[in-house]
Amino acid sequence: MNFRRVQSFAIACGVVALTSTPKAVAATATATLAVSATVTSNCTISTTALAFGSYDPVVTHASANLDGTGTVVIACTKGAAATIGLNTGSNASGTTRRMANGTDYLTYEVYKETGRSTVWGNTGTERYDAGTAPSSAAQTFTVYGRVTGGQTSAPAGSYADTLTATVNF
């Protein structure tokens, strides 16, 4: 009888042990993770041609100017302050811009505004002040060009020049 009691007691203890196992308690710890990035100030620049079309030194442009427009497009990081410079071109004589046809030239100028009174250059205040970029969206700036009338010594032919546009930021 004693054996049965011990056996019953052992079985009862086993059942109790199986049904009343203590729950595992999970421990936690935390740490912070620093996250950072640097937004760089950057700009891109592109252009569309300033094509004057036909210059007639005999009739139409004997005394009238030939005007045309092109564009400079920049896209800068928001908040970047930019200026845009245009050099004197590949055929300049001093500060005089010239389109060439071999050894013949047709002088012209480029300006910052539609009234064509403020020359667009490549240094100091001659640069176009594009201001501070309100966003990274592209901004288009018009280049106002003028071939002065009365250039009667220019022979017939195709004249061309290449200006370099530079964005400073």
Ranges where pLDDT stays below 50 over 5 or more residues in a row are none
Specify the helix fraction band: 10-25%
Task: Specify the biggest β-sheet.
Answer: 5 strands, antiparallel
From the N-terminal CA to the C-terminal CA, the straight-line distance is 100 Å
The amount of beta strand, in percent, is: 25-35%
Order of helices and strands: HEEEEEEEE
- Using the CA coordinates, give the radius of gyration: 39 Å
Spatial sequence of strands, sheet with the most strands: 1-2-7-5-4
Count of DSSP strands:
8
- Enumerate how many helices there are, as a single number: 1
Q: Helix- and strand-based class?
A: mainly beta
What shape does the CA trace take? Answer: rod-shaped
Would you tell me the overall average pLDDT?
91
